[in-house]
Each structure stands twice: as C-alpha cells, then as structure tokens.
Design goal:
Layout lengths: L28 E4 L10 E5 L5 E4 L14 H23 L8 E10 L6 E10 L5 H14 L1 H8 L14
Antiparallel strand pairs: 1-2, 2-3, 4-5
Helix pairs in contact: 1-2
Length: 169
C-alpha cells in the first residue's frame, strides 16, 4: 500500500526571511540543432536532468511542418501549470477543494507595433465548477500575486545574457 500524498505546507509568505532573491529550485534547458533560416526555434530541447527531451518545430501556421512543440506551447504549459499551483494553494488555504480547478493558458506570438520586433501575449482562463465569481475573485487575485509567472508578465524578470567562453583545445 502506498503512502498518502503529502501536501506541501500552506505558507505563501510566512516562511520568507530575507531582503534578496533566494532560489528554492533551479533548472537548465538547452536548445540546440535544427534549422535556423526562419529565425524561430527548432531542434532539440533537453533539460539537464534529461526529464524534458523534445523536438522543437516551426508551427504549420507560420509556414513550418509542425510535427513538434514550439516555444509558445512550452510557455503556455509553464504559465498554466504555475498559476494552477498557486491557485490550488490559495484555494486550500481558504478551505476550498482545488481538485476541479483547470487553468487554460493561451499564448499568441506576433509583431510588436512599437518597434516591429516580436511580442508574446498571454491570457489565462480558469474553470472552477461549483465556485461562483464572487468567491473566486479574491482567490484569483491572491494567486495572481503569488504566481511567479504572472508576476513575470506584469513586472518583468531580471535576466542575464552571457556568451560562453570557447572551450580550450
């Protein structure tokens, strides 16, 4: 017989102690190979631990052959998963059952009218049967404030860009 699932603690901010960012988890994914002539990701995406290993392809809607995942799908999956987790946590804190919560993330890739470059737009739709809008609204706001992906969308995320040194012969 297996052990019952152990839920993480219900803390959202009570265990924070410090003035600077303190990583709790980090991961690395490398994208390599593929064709680059169209300026879109293709090739292979692989996580350092090998758990994620998939083929990237240009979507058919953009003139590609499809047949693989694209960056917008990966971002939508991460956004939906992260918000789902945050909403599930605040729902449990409020004594609500999060089992029926579903989060749909739609991500659109398009032109940025300000500079002609590219831009991504994201929209989230939450389905929560048995929960009315008045009950859900404060919990959605709490989850939005807690979810690092929606924070990233609203506030931006610090990032570094570095060229790796050439390997020594």
């Amino acid at each position: 017989m297996s052990e019952p699932t152990r839920w993480p603690g219900l803390s959202t901010a009570k265990d924070f102690d410090g003035p600077v960012f303190s990583p709790i988890y980090a991961t690395t994914v490398t994208v390599s190979g593929g064709e680059a002539s169209h300026g879109r990701a293709s090739g292979r995406a692989r996580s350092a631990d090998g758990t994620l290993d998939l083929t990237l392809r240009l979507p058919a809607e953009l003139g590609g052959d499809g047949g693989g995942t694209n960056p917008e799908q990966l971002f939508a999956a991460g956004l939906a998963a992260c918000f789902h987790g945050a909403l599930s946590l605040v729902a449990r804190q409020a004594g609500r059952n999060p089992a029926l919560i579903a989060v749909e993330a739609s991500v659109a890739f398009g032109r940025d009218p300000r500079d002609g470059g590219y831009l991504v737009q994201a929209d989230l739709v939450v389905t929560w049967p048995g929960t009315d809008a008045a009950t859900a609204a404060p919990l959605l706001r709490q989850a939005d404030a807690l979810c690092p992906y929606t924070k990233m969308l609203a506030q931006g995320t610090p990032a570094t860009l570095t060229l790796a040194p050439e390997p020594q012969a």
